[in-house]
Design brief:
The protein is an alpha+beta fold and 352 residues long. 45% of the residues lie in helices and 20% in strands. α8 packs across α9 and α10 packs antiparallel against α11. The two termini are 46 Å apart.
């Protein structure tokens, strides 16, 4: 998969955005993978009040197994009478535990397939077969097996696929909106100290895009967040920037907006998929191309994503705010058109 970006808007608000592109064996790709899911099962989320969005890049099957195992473990704890996670960090500990377990299973399966051993055998320096113990004496085998154990050996059949990394972003009453990162090569839960995260093939463009906004803010302003309007525009712009400069970012986009101030846990996160997310991207593209002012884009995104504005209404307002509505329409269709590129309302252009 390609990219997952997360950004903190304010103490209790933030968002996550991802694309739908995935790369498979023999470099085939698809544009329908959902990379971001809710980590907590429904009943546990409602009981704890925690919003936990898990977004992964790398192998979709790897992250599906991590989330599935984490949900099963949390449900087992609930049946055993244990309290649900009260913070995002507590939920993250369950996720990183399964993240490491799945990593180990992958490694064990590969070692077993190639050499008939597991990580335990490698650590012991011997393998038990048929009731007998045999030392692992071949240096080449031990050297390669150790590289696999350290996640230093890639897969030849998918050299362009990014490594398995995950972003856990969400909200809890104690800390507000925050995020954590998990990486297969390190296996730890890392706090997003800067208030943003970008993982995947276009991560450098995503990080640069956030920095364009943050570098003009004081430390106190950065800690508080830029606000929902500016934050939404920065978040959506980050994935546009990634798509413009890096490959493996494509398909439709999925936008997730978290508002911890909502009354109940179910309404604290809003999902925008397909055409709904496409409108948010088009608003940001219109601003980036100069067709509408940044302030207008921030107002439209805030009204649409945070205040429940209707899609058709917001789209009409976007074109009403444009300097050149017909030019904006063409630009969004893929034509190389700027806000000052002639008068597109003429009969000659309309083909009349």
């Amino acid at each position: 998969m390609a990219i997952v970006n997360s950004f903190k808007f304010s103490r209790d608000q933030g968002g996550v955005i991802s694309d739908e592109e995935s790369w498979h064996l023999r470099l085939r790709k698809s544009h329908h993978t959902e990379h971001v899911v809710e980590l907590l099962p429904g009943g546990i989320m409602e009981e704890s009040g925690v919003v936990a969005l898990y977004g992964g890049v790398g192998g979709p099957d790897f992250h599906y197994e991590v989330v599935h195992r984490a949900r099963v473990a949390l449900q087992a704890r609930k049946k055993a009478g244990e309290p649900p996670p009260r913070t995002l960090e507590e939920a993250g500990r369950a996720a990183v535990d399964m993240f490491n377990r799945v990593t180990r299973r992958y490694t064990d399966d590969r070692l077993r397939f190639l050499y008939g051993i597991t990580l335990d055998d490698l650590n012991n320096g011997r393998v038990r077969k048929g009731g007998e113990k045999h030392d692992l004496a071949q240096g080449a085998v031990k050297t390669r097996a150790l590289k696999m154990a350290k996640q230093e050996e890639g897969f030849d059949d998918a050299p362009l696929s990014p490594p398995n990394h995950a972003c856990l972003a969400g909200w809890d009453a104690e800390s507000g909106f925050q995020g954590f990162c998990m990486k297969q090569e390190s296996g730890v839960l890392s706090l997003q100290a800067g208030g943003f995260e970008s993982i995947g093939a276009g991560k450098y463009a995503g990080g640069i895009s956030f920095q364009k906004l943050l570098r003009g803010m004081t430390l106190e302003e950065r800690r508080e967040g830029p606000g929902a309007g500016r934050g939404l525009l920065a978040l959506v712009s980050s994935i546009i920037e990634a798509g413009e400069h890096f490959g493996q970012v494509g398909g439709n986009y999925n936008l997730y907006v978290v508002d911890g101030g909502a009354k109940d846990s179910r309404s604290r996160v809003k999902y925008f998929h397909g055409g709904d997310a496409r409108l948010a991207v088009e608003i940001a593209r219109a601003s980036r191309a100069g067709f509408i002012a940044e302030s207008a884009a921030e107002r439209l995104l805030l009204k649409y994503a945070m205040k429940g504005g209707r899609r058709a209404e917001i789209e009409r307002e976007m074109f009403a705010a444009a300097k050149n509505p017909r030019g904006l329409d063409l630009m969004l269709r893929g034509y190389k058109v700027g806000p000052e590129s002639g008068d597109f309302k003429t009969n000659a252009f309309a083909g009349k």
